[in-house]
Amino acid sequence: MMSEKLKTIKELADELSVTKQNIQYHYQRLPKELQIKSSNGSNLINSKAEKIILGKVESGSKSNTKDQQISSKENFEDEKLDNPFINRLIKEVEYLKIDKDKIISTKDQQISSKDQQIEKLTNLLDQQQRLALQDKKLLDEYKSEINDLKALKMPTQETEFKHLDNQYKDEVNALKEKLENFQEQIKVQKRIEEQEKPRKWWGLWRK
Questions:
Q1: How many separate domains does the chain show?
Q2: Of 207 and 39, which is predicted with more confidence?
């Protein structure tokens, strides 16, 4: 079984890119059972102690970074108060923010107004379409009624025409019959006259 590899204060400091004093500071605050000494009295660090020290170093590094950011911000605020150019830029930025808010507000109002106009136009268009459909429906109904009336009227007219046609035919037939009777009477009269002619000549001859 291989023994655990131990690191010196310097080796761990070099790996973490920090000072030996920083590692030594955290090492001295380790539990006694984790403070290992070499045969010559040097401080050694095992893996468990390394994890604890690493956590302390990272925590301290974050704290230092935050402190530096706060300090830089405070320094900037101090410089800002004393620098007219920066003050002017800050005011211009504030004015631009106000103008931007006004522009956005105006645009929102314009968009809202346009939306209302579009909604009104849409409603009007819908109404016109509904009216057009109603007009078309009424027109179709009127056409249907007219066609129904025509269908009812046509048979009556046809019946009247047939009646007149039959009446005309009857009258024509009656006239034909009268004409035929008249012609027959003429023929009879002619036959009578033809028969009487010899008698007349006979009478004259006897005289």
A1: 1
A2: 39
